[in-house]
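Bit of a strange request maybe. I'm writing a small parser for structure token strings and I need a real example to test against, not something I typed by hand. Could someone generate the tokens for this chain?
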Amino acid sequence: MKLFIAEKRKACRESTVDLYDWFLGRLDLTGYVADITPDDLTRALKKIKSKSTNDHVLITARIFFNWCIKRRYVERNPTASFATHASPGRSRVLTEDELRKIWAACCDETNELPSLYRKIVKLLILTGQRRGEIAALRTSFIDGDVVTLPEILTKNGVEHFFPLSNLAIEILQSIEVDITRNDAFLFPARGKPDKCFNGWSKAIKSLRQTLGEDFPHFTIHDLRRTYRTNLGRLKVLPHIGERLLNHVSERSEVEMIYDRHHYLDEMRQAVEAYDAWFAALIRS
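Reply from user aminoacidic:
Good idea to test on real output. This should exercise your parser:
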């Protein structure tokens, strides 16, 4: 594993390699790599209670063992039969009025919502990304108006980039970052600058209390579905909407091989359309 980390440090972002190192460390496997079996992985993964962390560790292990196969350290990938946790299907799409109320709650600094959580929720509304991806944002992920999420952070293990809207950029610019720290988290855990925000349960409970008992039940992930649905309402082409959410499974194998265009300009147009629509919504 040390050779893997050393090689990746020559080719990848420092923050990406730090994630590789941390997730592989959670496996806590000893002995020769060639001797690691699926049963060993099963026992190691069972010790990781968080489904999200469990999935990221599995994805990292898959990347690591594929690297080992290319260098002929092992003959097969012991993660081949493993799958990430499937989320139960949901269909909840928030109404315009509900979005407006959530945004207003996150803007009201007199309530008890955590400061960083307010900004995270706003960015989830504006970008449609997964909560763990936004919470784990680092300064190195952002270049101008484009965010690049490393493969180690995304659910499908594929590097993902997306443009930011003006409203999203304003939120990011309002965040105070410790410039003395190299590649700092934008949303660090309280008292733990080397870890990202993770107080989801208490924060969503606080948000629901702020919104009141009459507000219909919703989950943070529903914001992602709502974002994608509203892109469709704005006549954004389906394949552009899916790219913004990093839904690569919607692309055929032939398309992924032959269509190497990044569609960044098209994604920017979609983001700008959404930004204009949402800005008008919260002003009404």
